[in-house]
Amino acid sequence: MKQPASALFTDFYELTMAQGYWKRKMDEPAVFDMFFRRQPYDGGFSVFAGLGTLFDSLEGFVFREDDLVYLESLGIFESSFLDYLRSFRFSGDLYAIDEGSLVFPGEPLARLHANLIEAQVVEGLILNHLNFQSLIATKTARIWLASRRGRIMEFGLRRAQGPDGALSASRAAFIGGAGGTSNTLAGQVYGIPVQGTMAHSWIMSFPSELEAFRAYAALYPDKSVFLIDTYDTLKSGIVNAITAGRELVEKGHGFGVRLDSGDLQYLSAQVRRALDEAGMPQAGITVSNDLTEEIIDTLVSNGAPITNWGVGTQLVTGGRESSFTGVYKLAARWNSGEFVPVMKFSDNPEKTTNPGIKNLWRLFDENGMAQADILALNGEVIETGKTLRVFHPAADYRQLQITPTRVEELLKKRLEGGKRLGPPASPREEISAARTRMEVQLDTLDPSYKRLLNPHVYKVSLTQKLKDMKLTFIESRYSQS
Question: In this structure, what is the dihedral angle of CA atoms 143, 146, 148, 153, given to the nearest 10 degrees?
Fold first, then answer.
């Protein structure tokens, strides 16, 4: 789905800076990196998402006439600058990691080459797309792994952050491992399987629970999942579900049940026993009720006989993490006909950036497992079979020697002159490929990085040349103070 094209989808200070660059004739080439600072959920990995929708927005990013009228009304912008904005189009180049890839703090997920005004004005757009969807894809992947790669249904539409948040969350959740969604629009736009059972209101609208189940079974004999906790799960819900379910089975159909409250460990075991004793071992059990990855992991570890997991609020809102910590920082600026690296310093060492135009490489061992990601200066090549000495981004004394069996360059050019390279994939093809990539890459990550609690920290390191450049900046700064 095309996102709103108005270029007013930007922070106001980007426009005030843009006018300043324009007046001072500073609209020259620049390079910005998008990266994130820490793993959400204290996890060991994140899933990169949002790239496909970002492409749509960048290609349609224009100032409409009503946008310019509004800016003029603010009394801040000169008429000549507004004329400049009238013809504004994003015409830069964008390099990015494949959507659905596993990513780690400090590494450039996207690198933008554009004139300074363009690069500045699209900052908010880039971060909005990539931060939110990466958060939700990461949350979903954690839930999916906690279920032991089980069947996850996303149904958080009613709790999501507005209509666009709901649609973006459904898209990202599919990339992260959800097998279906309750969001019908997401089904239409992205081809995500739409799923759903019934609400308690359906059952309460009939004279009895059994009549409600039978009515639903008559309408949807091949898609009946009975919600059994409206009145009493064990005394009436499962009893009536077995009665209505037996009638379906006798006609050659199947059915399932859903629990939405109570002690899911105890109730699922009791419901499973009742179904098996009734001769219906094929009937599955779906559970919901504000599930998190920790709850799901506990239920699975304790052997709860649950077939499907319905996750809403905790998935589409990000749960206990309100945002992905993605930032967008200048890495190089134009000076006297060439790019010169720049570096941000901070009183907080973790906010100090890595200077220059950089590439990102992933190194694999002889078993195909990811060993480390390496930040290298543009033009450096990481070679298979060649021992490489790399350095911790923040600690001078920590270094590592790696001899990779396979290497992969992760940043690839996606947009050139503001347009996608080659014909765009359909939204459905895009998220399907990203979902497959996520699954494949999880298999290349050691289990120690995928633990829910206290995961091992994946290595992200700098080459000797990049480390030397960074140290030169640091020494120069402190020699002047």
Answer: -30
Distance, CA of 440 to CA of 222 (rounded, Å): 32
110 forms beta bridges with 34, 96
CA distance 382 to 388: 8
Q: How far apart are CA 85 and CA 99, in angstroms?
A: 31
- Parallel, antiparallel, or unpaired for β 399-402 and 388-391? antiparallel
| Gyration radius from the chain CA atoms | 26
Judge contact between 136 and 159, C-beta under 8 A: no
Question: Could you give the CA distance from residue 91 to residue 51 in angstroms, rounded to a whole number?
Answer: 17
Contact between 205 and 193 (Cβ < 8 Å): no
The rounded distance, in Å, linking the Cα atoms of 117 and 61 is 13
Domains of the chain: 28-55+97-136+321-480 (3.20.140.10), 197-289 (3.20.20.70)
- Cα–Cα distance list, 176 to 171, 220, 308, 316, 438 (Å): 9, 29, 16, 12, 7
DSSP state of 159: G
pLDDT in tens, 164-215: 999 999 999 999 999 999 999 999 999 999 998 899 999 999 999 999 999 9
> Encoding tokens for residue 421?
């390279």
pLDDT surpasses 60 at 2? no
